[in-house]
Design brief:
It is a single chain. The protein is an alpha/beta fold and 203 residues long. The chain has six helices and nine strands, in the order βββαββαααβαβαββ. It has helices at 40-48, 79-84, 92-101, 117-130, 147-164, 175-181, and strands at 2-11, 14-24, 29-33, 55-59, 64-67, 135-139, 167-171, 184-189, 194-200. The strands form two sheets. It has a six-stranded mixed sheet with strand order 5-6-7-3-8-9, with helices on both faces. Strands 2-1-4 form a three-stranded antiparallel sheet. Helix 3 (92-101) packs across helix 4 and helix 4 packs parallel to helix 5. The chain is globular and about 50 Å long.
Length: 203
């Protein structure tokens, strides 16, 4: 599971997060909502262990995968190598299988810059799920996609989460995306930001 108890997070003298507490069980997806600049990305960095400068305590499994807003791919490596280099213990057959799941089976020798944005996002998902993560963090992975492509990506992500069952923290600005992908929705608000709602999706 992911367990978060951020008593306080500040930048200099400015407190940005205060009393943010929640748990995410294995197989559960929690969507994180809130206006731009509220501290969602800061909170993700804390949960991911990228930043450790805060008061409180966070528990997160070691097998953690992150899907960023922009695909963070190795542009000088092939689609297949983008999987194998991140997961060196993964067999070639397993890497090919996950690429097939995301619809990139015929793109294994292409480079990220030769792929469309949608295909790059699919590759990012494939790389994240190839390691069978126990925890998954997604930072607005469907932003900048048209409605049809976003719907396809949501369907694909739903299927991969169902198969792998990580504890998932999903940041989005879209309540519709949150209701579709998550079982719970947590909303940040105020200054400093705190949890103003933690409710079942769809409410």
């Amino acid at each position: 599971m992911i367990r978060v108890d951020v008593t306080r997070k500040s930048f200099g003298t400015t407190e940005v997060l205060h009393g943010v507490r929640f748990d995410i069980q294995r197989g559960e997806t929690l969507a994180l909502l809130g206006p731009s600049g509220i501290g969602k990305s800061t909170l993700l960095r804390l949960v991911a262990g990228i930043s450790k400068d805060f008061e409180g305590h966070i528990e997160c499994p070691d097998k953690l995968a992150i899907v960023f807003q922009e695909p963070t791919l190795l542009d000088w490596r092939s689609t297949l190598d983008n999987i194998l280099l991140v997961h060196p213990g993964l067999s070639r057959d397993a890497a090919l299988a996950i690429l097939d799941k995301v619809g990139l089976a015929d793109k294994t020798d292409m480079y990220p810059r030769q792929l469309s944005l949608g295909q790059q996002r699919r590759l990012s998902l494939a790389r994240a799920f190839a390691g069978q993560p126990d925890a998954l963090i997604m930072d607005e992975p469907f932003v900048s996609l048209d409605a049809e492509m976003a719907d396809d990506m949501l369907t694909l992500t739903e299927r991969l989460i169902e198969e792998t069952r990580p504890a998932t923290l999903f940041v989005t600005h879209s309540r519709a995306e949150a209701n579709r992908l998550a079982g719970r929705v947590l909303t940040l608000g105020g200054k400093p930001a705190t949890v103003i709602a933690d409710e079942p999706a769809g409410t």
